[in-house]
User: Fold this.
Amino acid sequence: MTDPSTATIRVFVVEDHQATLEGLSGGLGREEGFEIVGLSENSDDGLRAAMQLRPDVIVLDLHLPGSLGPKQMVDEFVRVPGARVVVFSAESRLAFIQAVLSQGVSAYLLKSERLKTVADTVRRVMRGEKGIVSQELTFDHKKLTPSEQEVLHMLGRGMKYQEIADERLTSAATARKQCEVLQLKLNLENREQLIAWAVQNGYGSRELGN
Assistant:
């Protein structure tokens, strides 16, 4: 039986920016124990090739030419048999990242990451680690409960305490308390800062887009 720690990691890269594609594939291809088995610059061709090649790890940009929007694309790529998905994106909004991670990807890295970090992340996901995010994304997405995320979405859409309470079938006092807890978690001083944080981190919208 092959020792997983010494087996070659077969990597497939999907990225539409030529310089980034060449940098990633060239750099990862020089890493010990890595083999670049395929490259693609659009979502449709990338998905077809990934299904044929069955790589161990797919390094995937989220905004690609093709018929698939980000949400549908992630759904399709995480279904590739035997493959783990490492998203490599410039998108840094927390709500967006949380949505992507909830779809089953193993890691989410910003494009500002060094190649060594990408390579180390590929090795980590091959060891079974999940929920890996760039250190630059300093707030731990796991700390926000689904209920707190729902409140942030409502704040991001401009809803007031009473409107949030009506929507969630609770009291205005409870809605206010939830917002105060969020302020403490996020190290913010007041409701205005909390609203600004919600908008800046993508909580004005519930969807990744199709």
Remarks:
- DSSP finds nine helices and six strands in the chain.
- The chain has two domains: 9-133, 144-200.
- The CA atoms of residues 33 and 160 lie 54 Å apart.
- The mean pLDDT is 89.
